[in-house]
Amino acid sequence: MLTTTTITEFEEVLGTEAVVTDPVALRSYECDGLTGYRVTPALVLLPSTAEEVAACVSVCAREDIPFVARGAGTGLSGGALPVAQGVVISVQRLRRVLSIDPDNRRAVVEPGVTNADISRAAAPYGLYFAPDPSSGQVCTIGGNVAENSGGAHCLKYGFTVHHIHAVDVVLPDGTLTRLGSHAPHQAGYDLLGAFIGSEGTLGIAVRIEVRLLPRPAAWRTLVADFDSLEAAGDTVTDIIAAGIVPAAIEMMDSLSIEAVEAAVAAGYHRDARAALIVELDGPHQEVASQFAEIQRLCRDHGCTHLRVAADADERAVIWKGRKAAFAAVGRISPDYLVQDGVVPRTRLAEALTRIARLADAAGLRVANVFHAGDGNLHPLVLYSEAAGQHDRAEHLSTSIAELCVELGGSLSGEHGIGTDKACSMPRQFDADSLATMRRLRTAFDPHDLCNPGKVLPTPRLCGERPGPYQPHPLETAGVIERM
Amino acid sequence: MSETTDPPQPGTSSFDDHHPPARNLLDDCVHCGFCLPTCPTYVVTGEEMESPRGRIYLMDLAAKGEIPLNDAFGSRIDSCLGCLACTTACPSGVQYDKLIEAVRPQLERNVPRTPTDRFFRAAIFHLFPHPGRLRLAALGGIAYRALGIRALLHRLGVIRRLPARLRALEALLPPVTLRDLLRRTPSHVPAAAAAPAGLRVGLLAGCAQRVFFGDVNAATIRVLAAEGCEVYVPRDGQCCGALSMHAGREDDGLERARRTIDMFERHDLDIVVTNVAGCGSTLKEYGALLADDPDYRERAAAFSARTRDISELLAELPPLATRHPLPLRVAYHDACHLANAQRIRSQPREVLRAIPDLEVADIAEAEICCGSAGIYNLVQPEKAEELGRRKAASLHAARPEVIATANAGCLLQIRRHIGEDVPLVHPVQLVDASIRGVHPFRDSAKRRLPHD
Ligand SMILES: Cc1cc2nc3c(=O)[nH]c(=O)nc-3n(C[C@H](O)[C@H](O)[C@H](O)COP(=O)(O)OP(=O)(O)OC[C@H]3O[C@@H](n4cnc5c(N)ncnc54)[C@H](O)[C@@H]3O)c2cc1C
Ligand code: SF4
Ligand code: SF4
């Protein structure tokens, strides 16, 4: 339990200025990027070193205080949602790039370093960190590890999990240990694999050794406009069928284009029904021949306009537009929900048609922007809180995620399960799979102190019959509120 | 500040009725966090409540009546530099400038400050917006330096024991010479060359600017005249209201705005030009600030539409005067009130690059504030110190021979942290030196360039 004595103990470990007790300040921590769930923490701790994190967690373990790690709070599934009576351990003061080893293409960084800052620090050596979530300027590498984040270029380069050598972790009992190593093959259990994507439920990452890649020799980027989402989707299928692995294939529909143009004026055409962004990178020769092939495929599928980035600046503008898409939707709708699901690539067009049908039935608009190459959809459900459309929007969003499962895909492509989708887990996993996951979690965190209530459904959170449409019991109890 | 006694009333806004932050502006924020890495106070503290997202969140809670207007909330708003880096970074178009401008007067009105805080702020407002008093204070400053009192106090460690705010004020005193102080800016200068446009331009002499940076004004006037403008510098110059507005002293700021409009209207001008970014952004807001005033509404809007920063104007004017080469490596520091509030980033660089042989170097973390921001370095000295040190390190790393920035506050703040070895100038001083073919640094102002 958190008492004044424990608070004093935290203050002795960290200094008073790193322990937030002021009730007003605490409220600013009550949600992450998913503002629908809010819980005010009892305390926020801002340690500056790995050892301080370990000391904080030890106190929590001894006193039975639940704790939640927090990076930049950009998570979209309520993963960093605090626990009432619990503490939030923010890693925002662990922001040092500790070392860069250009010969072995490795860097060791603290968990609060932003995704983009790793690439910035590696740039002088011609290296970069490949996973590129749209939130890369803001989100932390600790958050990326916890969510196994991806981005546009994961089609070719894989997710965060493919770019981490080792993680120093503070386990839920306060032990500081290392998972993984930079040896190419490791004996024993793959604990690092279990930790990556565990959404802060198995411990707190305090030092991360990342893999860096050399900058590709060449890249080409184009934007192809189409009259229909189907035509764009078929083009994607054909590109992959031709044996080409582009660095990225992204798709935006007309609503997303409208939002992006309103926000950053990146030169997309507002009259296009769908725009594909295709990027190739690699050796000059290969890029040149494949790029010609892709342009041909786009034309074959009736593309109405083809824009080829003339230089690095134009490429940056194209990507800036794509990466601002989520946040830019705020320009065309007072409120919106970001959904994240995966469908088999071949069923993209079908998924989009059915999403449109669901949206019509709900009387709401859905903007689509997604990683088309790997079938990772990000439908954005637009609604107005003021007009009382929240519940309808929430239902629609959940039906879209479950539609993905039904089409043979997954509940989440990269944003995680967190608080938001914990109750939907039984739709994708049977009881045995869930029980196995729970056993793994208990092995790390026997007393359920480390980010409790996230990822796995619990009767307390989801009621007797786990399902998405239940009012949240914490909500009924007045502990959390949904906007 | 102290706690207010009124408990919050959920459902009823904690703000009073006089221009509370607008609900639709608060709702524009989608909590994505894209603004965090550019916010200087967040970069320094890593604290959510010291970030734009956190501040907007707290404003939202206050608007919903979930938190009161009290010291705890007020201190988060006080610590905001108003640098507006967040508005530049925000993809959702959140108008943080409007939000903070609405909230500051609310706090000034509704949250009592502690006596020392009030005294310190009042002292600043009695000093800075008044050139006459400033000149007197600066004279005191000269005596203080000349008589070696400063060095002595430093050696005795007295300075270190001063409260942080006084220490900040002490360290900021710029090295002003008597000649600078006694110099008065001429009130009318005819165009030195005939220009097709033949613009009548009024220069805002500025309050702190006029006393500490008379040479910047002189350079501005020379450059404008050389580019074919007829220049007027209204004599009864007083503060344009920027300092007051940025600190939430709304009534005082509006009164100054009205007087500034009156003053310039007497001259029938095409353009009003400023060389201080902080003043410029306020002049450009007069239209919005005085929208409620039936006597001034239209005049203020017209005034704002006529206002230009000097770099902005120079980039618009076809160059008339010949630029002589200046073989220098210049680090250009974006003043927040220019880059974020007025969105003027490329123009000063263009104007500098038009000087033959001059190289403009890029600096790391260019978008992060130097910690000056209005009176911030005086009222929030600890954070400002850290930001100043950070900025100085980034600037040093670019190995410049000279640093240029377009704001008096930034000049003072950077000078303090970078030390004496790299000269600091306003970009217009480099343009002036190039047009005149002289060396730009003050000590050698009269020396011709070697290759001339
Ligand atoms: C506009 C926008 C665009 C986005 N685009 C993408 C995208 O393209 N791809 C993508 O994958 N995601 C995307 N996201 C989601 C989000 O940015 C990622 O999930 C990111 O990795 C979260 O990082 P964070 O630092 O903000 O973590 P937080 O939100 O603070 O935390 C996320 C989770 O990680 C845990 N955690 C944080 N730090 C640690 C640590 N040091 N050790 C252990 N656990 C920790 C938390 O407990 C929580 O469960 C986007 C979000 C936004 C707002
Ligand atoms: S104005 Fe500057 S200091 Fe204030 S919130 Fe925005 S970025 Fe931060
Ligand atoms: S101010 Fe803009 S960038 Fe910052 S959190 Fe809000 S919407 Fe995002």
From TrEMBL, chain A:
Q: Which InterPro entries match?
A: FAD-bd_oxidored_4_C, FAD-bd_PCMH, FAD-bd_PCMH-like_sf, FAD-bd_PCMH_sub1, FAD-bd_PCMH_sub2, FAD-linked_Oxase-like_C, FAD-linked_OxidoTrans_Type4, Oxid_FAD_bind_N
Q: Where is the FAD-binding PCMH-type domain?
A: 37-215
* Needed co-factor(s): FAD
The secretion signal range is none
Q: Which GO terms describe its molecular function?
A: FAD binding; oxidoreductase activity
- Which UniProt keyword terms apply here? FAD, Flavoprotein, Oxidoreductase
A family per Pfam: FAD-oxidase_C
UniProt-listed PROSITE patterns: FAD_PCMH
UniProt keyword Zinc-finger, yes or no: no
Q: What is the protein named?
A: FAD-binding protein
Native organism is Streptomyces brasiliensis
Q: Kindly list the organism's lineage.
A: Bacteria, Bacillati, Actinomycetota, Actinomycetes, Kitasatosporales
From TrEMBL, chain B:
Q: Which residues form the 4Fe-4S ferredoxin-type domain?
A: 19-49, 73-94
- Pfam families membership: CCG (PF02754), Fer4_8 (PF13183)
Q: Which residues form a coiled coil?
A: none
Supply the enzyme class, top level.
Answer: oxidoreductase
The note on cofactor binding and number reads: Binds 2 [4Fe-4S] clusters.
Per the record, what are the reactions this protein catalyses? glycolate + A = glyoxylate + AH2; (R)-lactate + A = pyruvate + AH2
Which keywords belong to this entry?
A: 4Fe-4S, Electron transport, Iron, Iron-sulfur, Metal-binding, Repeat, Transport
**What is its cofactor?**
[4Fe-4S] cluster
Name the domain of life. Answer: Bacteria
PANTHER family per UniProt? GLYCOLATE OXIDASE IRON-SULFUR SUBUNIT
Protein name (record): Glycolate oxidase iron-sulfur subunit
Record gene name: glcF
